[in-house]
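Let us practice reading a record.
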Amino acid sequence: MQAVQRRLRSRISSSGRGAVFTPKDFLDIGARDAVDQALRRLVHRGFIRRVGRGLYHYPRTNAQLGIDMPPRIDDLAQAIGRQTGSRVTPSGSVAANRLGLSKQVPAKPTYLSDGRSRDVRVGKTTIRLKHASPKRLLPVRPVSAEVFLALDYLGKDGITESVIQSIRKHLTPSQCQQLVRDARYAADWIADAARRIRGNAEGLLNG
């Protein structure tokens, strides 16, 4: 048991402050009962926090305020996906907000999933998981998926030059290149927008 606990502590430390995880993330280290018991002990010692059913957080501390920061919503959503064996990706409204394309903050952050629809409450936050058809969960890199869903949320007529510029600011040149490669899975008008976003990224990569 102590060996399992030491290995859990080491892996959690290496994951960095702010990480969110579930017991399933450690089943290569030990049996489920042993992992659950080790996690409970680490919670009791204040090394990690239990933030929901089967969800644990390695907290970050705000240096100025001296208080632990809450988990990031996206980290929680991805951990819930791993917990349930489901693919999870931000909905169009969440993606648009994260890319600076919308100032509207959803009351319940919504994520698309190939699992069942449900609300998951973590502390004061409620995350909504909405079942989506496979064609909406494109087999692309997470950054590309976020951009495509944001573009779909805005609609074809909402893709202005300022939108293109705003998205480009959030991506590296290599991510812009990957966006165009992944666009073969998206609608034609989204592929056109991806090429506009890429712009002169190729030149930046070669420069």
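A brief commentary: Confidence is low (pLDDT under 50) at residues 203-207.
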